[in-house]
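INPUT
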Amino acid sequence: MDITVKESGDVKIVVFEGNLDTNTAPAAEDEINGLIDGGTLKLLVNFEKLDYISSAGLRVLLATAKKLKPSSGDLKICCLNATVQEVFDISGFASILSVSSTEEEALGSF
Amino acid sequence: MIRELSRFRLAWDGLILLLIIVSCILVPYQFAFCQDSALNGFQVIYLIDLFFLIDIAFNCFTSFRQHGVEVLDRRVCTKRYSRKMMGIDLLASLPLDLLAWVLIGNGQVLGGSLVLALRLLRLLRIVRFFVILRRWEAFSWSNPGFLRVVKFLISILILMHWLACAWFFTAFAVAFPADSWAVRAGIENAGPIAQYIRSLYWTITTMTTVGYGDITPARPTEYVFASMIMLMGASIYAFIIGSVASLLSSIQAAKNTHWERIDSVTEFLRQRHVPADINSKVRNYYEYVWDHSRGVDKNDLLNDLPGPLRLEILLHLAKKILDTVPLFKYCSPVLRNELLISLESRTYSPDSYIVREGESGKAIYFITEGSVEITSEEGEKSWGTMSEGDYFGYMSVVLGERRTASLKTLGYCDLLILKVDDFDRIKSEFPEFNDVLKRVSGERTQQLSELIMEGIIL
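OUTPUT
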């Protein structure tokens, strides 16, 4: 899985490519933790190029949201493909986390 | 049409039952003890007749069950009644005695009044007594054991009354000769109540095989009658003892079996030196199970029943969760029924772990009674409680994750369980189940959302 980080103002945009599963979740978590530890409060995760997410991947998102909460930070997610959207819907993550259909929309919601 | 098991029919049958008992007491008593006035008590008798004639009309309009199906067609019901019971009911209810009195006056038959003898036809009403009790046995509220006891006791008391009347009549019919039992007992000129008490006393002592010997037969008819009563008494006495013992044991059978089981389990635990507090917990659990289900294993019972009946019972048992739990609320009836059929019922005793932290998600649990605490494995942290109508286990099943908290019962807790295999099967068989799950997840309670944000997966 490839992880790319870009910036838009004070928002860090993390783009995942490939599968976010048990094998790749630790690397993703390390990457995000690095950003939070570096002082990032506004984080946007772009799943446009993500093919599949497992429960381990969802757990990374949960841990991130939890970590940002005490420091009034915010986690937004955008651009889910049909497969990932299905996982979000069934697990209820779509209603727990803030999910937008486009990156622009997500950026505007911070 | 009057429904066979309607409240009206029940109340009416209750009244008729009472009137049958009154008829069965009054009519033979009048015949044996009040012969001097042929129309004595006629007002009551004819008033009761009126009720029975109305009952015949009602019976024509009362539904009945055939092959388990209630027949509501009036013509079929009337035809069936007229073929089976109407003849007896008419014979027992029409005032033939009054007709005879008007047409031919009060003649004599067997040494007694013809009018009063014709009244004895009303004793045929006893047949209806058994018909009504048989109908009552179909009521869900009625205890069959209790009804059997009532039927048995009333039958025996009525039989004793009839025999007491018949015993006195053996002396009365021949105008109290000097060697008759009534004259030797000195009651030939006593009042009817005193005469009745002595007759009944002799009947009871003879039927119960006590036989004090203070009243004895002397005339051939009395010997024959007494011999018949002795034979009948011995059989009935044996029947009474056997039936009462059987009834009492059948009423207690379920409880006895349950307590025998408790005793053997606690004895087993004691022999294995299991600590007394655990032994006591096991005993308390069985007591709870008895209080709640009278020793019937719900799963065994449901598995015994055919699918449609099982479903009807489950729809009732799970009524609360069907109305409150979104998973069931949004399902089509077919999907809901499939989910219900797959549910397994289980009872947990207080302070028991239903699921433990670290376990993989094997089932979804719906609380139907009691409450549980969400806690860490060691119990040092608590994330609140869940109670009746709440459910848990969904996230670990959907995500295939291990649970990150434990659930412990706070008291006795009844749950319905949907195993993961059934969950997966239904998901693959019913494409709409996915949409339901999405909708359910979207409407997750605040408590469940907060738990997920805390990283708690149940």
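end of record. The mean pLDDT of chain B is 85.
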